[in-house]
Design goal:
Radius of gyration of chain B: 19 Å
Number of domains of chain B: 2
CATH class of one domain in chain A: Mainly Beta
Number of strands of chain A: 8
Helix content of chain A: under 10%
CATH topology of the largest domain in chain B: Peroxisomal Thiolase, Chain A, domain 1
Bound molecules: zinc ion
Helix content of chain B: 25-40%
Strand content of chain B: 25-35%
Distance between the termini of chain B: 55 Å
CATH topology of one domain in chain A: OB fold (Dihydrolipoamide Acetyltransferase, E2P)
Number of strands of chain B: 14
Number of helices of chain B: 13
Largest sheet of chain B: 9 strands, mixed
Strand content of chain A: 35-45%
Number of helices of chain A: 2
Largest sheet of chain A: 5 strands, mixed, barrel
Largest interface: A-B, 18 and 25 residues
CATH class of the largest domain in chain B: Alpha Beta
Shape of chain A: globular
Radius of gyration of chain A: 16 Å
Distance between the termini of chain A: 33 Å
CATH architecture of one domain in chain A: Beta Barrel
Oligomer: heterodimer
Shape of chain B: globular
Strand order of the largest sheet of chain A: 4-5-6-8-7
């Protein structure tokens, strides 16, 4: 990933800042800047999403992409946030055998990756089960 | 001083390794090692955790207790000896992650294990002079130790954050005073570009830890005209279980006075996190009007001592974020080989 692109995405990656349409109240994450429903009538503004949600579905990754090799086997889940939007995220600090659909999860702050040994370190949200 | 603590929070990674497992790898008698150090197990960061992620989690927990607008935070200091970057502050990552940017000052602090308490003093000064409304100081580390080095038994990961503000109604504790004792003592160091620290063996005890902790404690007692009997609790930097117990005895504090804040047997030495987590463990349980003595220690060497008096607001604030005990109990054990992989000692 290029550092400038990541830098622009820091608010949503660090703090789950999405957008909300002031016209129809729909919440978007990742943020959208045009409401697909309201079009020119839409009024999109930054919106801080709830840091909690539920696992809608998940998979266990055994063959990981570069940079994630040492984390296998790990859980990759689609989480529905309390405000509605869904996002794909790693679920950390768990035994993959103990994860169930419907489990409550909360946002945590983790390393997402790094550009090689000497590049920028990327941080952002992942999720963990609520104990 | 007219300065108080308005919020505090900790974070300890979930993974643990038992000292038995480390001792067996190196052919040492587990029970002797555990008794010698008075440590049973230590925390291990997950591969995607570092000092920045630990600091953010601790700071977010401190904010939950403080209940303040993060935009009112005027200073962030992150004390650590394991900042993820050699050049690029951890404090800016934390500032962004708690939505305190951009109108604030931020810097990383370094002083071995006492950089977090040095940050508390900096925040207290800025609050007292009216320069900032709130300041947050964090002490966090993912401590490194060479395989087979005695430090490997205790080098752990964790962090604590303290939010400093005026000593008014929202303060959960008052900082009555602070006193520091500093000398140039080469008991523990790490040179540039070297992955692991070196230490002076036995030299780390008497002229280093004990001399500085005792001198700083005596200093604050003298300054505030207090005696050990005036304190319900005491927290001393805890590189192992033995040192804080011995230093407490030397200073005339009982085992009961240090019991609440002694977390090292269950998590190991979290370096810059150690004193901060110890203080948090006491605040989790202390009653209003109780007095706490806090003395950190950083190799190199120096100690910062604080006298802290708990206030009424503690009772409504302490349940707003996870307590130290919850972190101690919520754990996943890993074996030595997984540990070496997580610490990037085992690389494919
Ligand atoms: Zn709309």
């Amino acid at each position: 990933m290029a550092a400038p692109r990541f830098w622009r995405e820091i608010p949503n990656r660090y703090n789950l800042i999405g957008t909300r349409c002031g016209n129809c109240n729909k919440v978007f994450f990742p943020p959208r800047y045009i409401c697909p429903q309201c079009r020119r009538m839409g009024k999109l503004e930054p919106y801080k999403l709830s840091r909690r949600g539920k696992i809608v579905t998940y998979g266990v990754v055994h063959v990981a992409p570069e940079g994630f090799e040492d984390l296998v086997p790990y859980v990759l889940a689609i989480v529905e946030l309390e405000d509605g939007p869904r996002l794909t995220t790693q679920v950390v600090d768990c035994d993959p055998n103990e994860i169930k659909i419907g489990d409550e999860v909360e946002m945590v702050f983790r390393r997402i990756g790094a550009d090689r040994e000497d590049g920028v370190i990327y941080y952002g949200f992942k999720f963990r089960k609520v104990e | 001083m007219n300065v108080g603590i308005v919020g505090y929070g900790v974070y300890i990674p979930r993974y643990r390794i038992r000292l038995d497992d480390i001792a067996r790898v190196w052919g040492e008698e587990p029970s002797r090692v555990k008794q010698g150090l008075m440590v049973e197990e230590k925390s291990v960061p997950a591969p995607d955790e570092d000092t920045a992620t630990i600091s953010v989690e601790a700071a977010r927990n401190a904010l939950k207790r403080a209940g303040i607008n993060p935009q009112d935070i005027g200073a962030i200091y992150v004390g650590s000896e394991s900042h993820p970057y050699a050049v690029k502050p951890t404090a800016t990552i934390v500032a962004e992650a708690i939505e305190a940017t951009p109108n604030l000052t931020a810097a990383d602090m370094e002083f071995a294990c006492k950089a977090g308490t040095a940050g508390i003093q900096a925040c207290a000064g800025l609050v007292e002079m009216g320069q900032i409304k709130y300041g947050i100081s964090i002490g966090a580390d993912t401590a490194q130790a060479a395989p087979g080095d005695p430090l490997e038994y205790t080098a752990a990961a964790g962090g604590g954050a303290v939010i400093i503000g005026k000593n008014d109604g929202e303060a959960l504790a008052e900082i009555e005073g602070t006193y520091s004792y500093t000398t140039d003592t080469p008991d523990f160091w790490r040179r540039e570009m070297r992955p692991y620290p070196k230490h002076g063996g036995r030299f780390t005890g008497k002229p280093a830890y004990f001399k500085h902790v005792v001198s700083a404690a005596h200093g604050i007692l003298r300054q505030l005209k207090l005696t050990p009997q005036d304190f319900a609790h005491a927290v001393f930097h805890q590189p192992n279980g033995k040192f804080p117990c011995q230093v407490a005895e030397e200073l005339g504090f009982s085992k009961a006075q240090i019991a609440c804040g002694l977390v090292v047997p269950k998590i190991g030495n979290t370096y810059s996190g150690a004193t901060m987590i110890g203080l948090a463990a006491v605040l989790d349980k202390a009653k209003p009007d109780e007095r706490i003595l806090v003395v950190s220690y950083g190799s190199g060497a120096g100690s910062d001592a604080f006298s802290i008096k708990v206030k009424k607001a503690i009772e409504e604030k302490r349940d707003l974020a996870p307590k130290v005990e919850q972190f101690l109990n919520n754990k996943i054990y890993i074996d030595y080989s997984t540990y070496t992989k997580y610490k990037s000692l085992l690389v494919r």
